[in-house]
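Hi U.,

Before I forget, here's the chain from the pilot set. I'm dumping it here mostly so it's searchable later in email.
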Amino acid sequence: MAYTLRRLRRLGGQWPVDENKPGRDLGEHIRRRVAAIRDGDCKDTKELDRAYQALQLIHSNHFRKKYLREEDIAFTGRLAKDNPWLLSNETQEKMQKRSIWDRLLGRKQRL
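Structure:
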């Protein structure tokens, strides 16, 4: 089990952190989960091995290579790498605000 924890910790340390998405970043979430496992959240070795294998597949871009796409686009149709601000926390908060039309009709906030 200690070996699997070391591998998980090493893999979690390699994950890049996106500064534009504090609190929503995948690398940050993985580091928190690995720390929780290390502190005794999970004792099952088979479950740890499955988690490591799944993270390894994602980290190595296995599924990105398996299911090729023509372009890496965001929800707006623009390229995600050219417009990182689209997925930032500030932009996401702006998208969640009610529009004037919603306020006039008395609609609740969109989710």
